[in-house]
Amino acid sequence: MAHDLKDLTAVMEAESARGVPSPDLLDGVRRRVRRGNRLRAAAAALGVVLVAGTAFGAVQRFGPGGSADPEQRGSAITGAVDRAFPKSRSVQGLKPVTERRFSWYGRLARITFTPTGPYTMFTTYCSNGATSFEVMNGDLANADCGGAQFMLTTPGVPTTVQIAVLPADEARRFDMTDDPAALDRYLAGREPRRGNWSVRVYSGPCTSANCKLMRRLAPAPQPPLTGLASLGRATGTADGRARTVPLHERVTALRLRVTCADGAAHAVVRIAGRAKVVECEAAESKGVVWDTDVPGGTDAVDVAVLPAEVPKVGGTDDAALAKAMKGVKPDGTWTLEVYAR
User: Fold this and answer.
1) Torsion angles phi and psi, residue 137, rounded to 5
2) Which of 119, 127, 186, 213 is the most buried (most CB within 10 A)?
3) Do the domain assignments include residue 222?
4) Least confident piece of the model among 23-27, 58-62, 80-84, 320-324
5) Is residue 270 within 8 Å of 316, Cβ to Cβ?
6) Are 37 and 151 contacting, i.e. CB atoms less than 8 angstroms apart?
7) Which CATH number does the domain housing residue 324 bear?
8) Which residues, in sequence order, are CB contacts of 58 under 8 Å at separation 6+?
9) Which among 173, 194, 217 is the end of a domain?
């Protein structure tokens, strides 16, 4: 099941009086974020002021009405660049990178920029009541205009964000999903409207509470897979059933990655009589990578994956897995990759 800003805000507001989320709630936040390496700023929960028109500048107003010109219906637009913006003041330790201005609602805008630090924030400004829809790292999210998005970025590596702004009435008609293709289809079936909006991007070292929370939620660096020989690979449905993955050769040193999607959450990996439970839901497309040594060597790996509806893996043998799946429907998919190291 996908979760959105309301889920995250609810969890964070519950703990805001005590300062930061407790360790017990962090797993819940991770499940709710489900956006890989970015976290929406929940201003009410964290007490961070992100108010359009005061913190960052005036909200732009609607332009004159009118239907879209033919050229306004094609590929994504890039907007007009405000070349003076990079000289403006820093915000929360983040330096201004770029500002783009647009004149159409209902068109997908593509903003490519080069981060200058590990944290990047961007804020969309538009008319009161409008909603922005953002595509980042293959995920779709939405926010009221004036809200901020924070991302973990790699300095010097170009990053692209896609944004579409819709008036409130049309935003309500869109059935929100995590799939960016659904937004593309919705925009293709509607007429763009004249309307002014802009995006401001900041990057650098971050001093806000949002970035402190992101550091806690960010996954630890994982061992690389580049250059390693592949020994075996398998995919399946998260149904709790154990599968044996044969390896191309018998080895004693392994590096494994398990990737879970669409509701798959807990992987049980068994090698030479030893079992490991891997919580893989939060890592999403990045997967979870780890090393293991098998003194006597092995030529096979067993794997079983359970859906998120199973709250906790109580045992790793077949009987325990079957018990955990009792009354639970299979949900989600997984991939296991095995490499020699």
Assistant:
1) 55, 35
2) 119
3) no
4) 58-62
5) yes
6) yes
7) 2.60.120
8) none
9) 217
Whether 97 and 242 share a structural domain = no
Q: Mark whether 150 and 192 lie in a shared domain.
A: yes
Reading phi first (left if > 0) and then psi (alpha if -120 to 50, else beta), residue 146 is in: left
CB atoms inside a 10 Å sphere around CB 211:
21
CA distances from 296 to 23, 91, 250, 272, 280 (A): 38, 56, 9, 8, 28
Instruction: pLDDT band for 322, please (50, 70, 90 cuts).
Output: very high
Helix ranges restricted to H, 102-202: 168-173, 180-188
Are residues 55 and 76 both part of a single domain? yes
Please give the sequence-ordered ranges of beta strands (E in DSSP) within 12-155, or none if there are none. 38-40, 80-81, 95-105, 109-113, 119-125, 131-136, 139-144, 148-152
Say if 223 falls within a structural domain: no
For residue 51, the one-letter residue type is V
Residues 301 and 182 in one domain: no
Total count of domains within the chain = 2
Question: Do 39 and 179 belong to one domain?
Answer: yes
Residue 224 lies in a domain: no
Q: What is the pLDDT of residue 171?
A: 87
Backbone angles phi, psi at 174, to 5 degrees: -85, 125
Cβ(60)–Cβ(127) under 8 Å?
A: yes
**CA separation for the pair 160, 307 (Å, rounded):** 32
Range of the domain at 329: 229-340
The reported pTM is: 0.52
Residue 279's SS3 state is: strand
173, two tokens: 């008609």
Determine how many CB atoms are found less than 10 A away from the CB of residue 219: 16
Here the tokens at position 168 are: 């409130």
Ramachandran angles phi, psi of 173, nearest 5°: -80, -15
Q: How far apart are CA 43 and CA 235, in angstroms?
A: 40
Which tops the pLDDT comparison, 303 or 178? 303
Asked if residue 317 is part of any domain, the answer here is: yes
Nearest to 297 by CA among 334, 337, 257, 249: 249
Domain shared by 169 and 243, yes or no: no
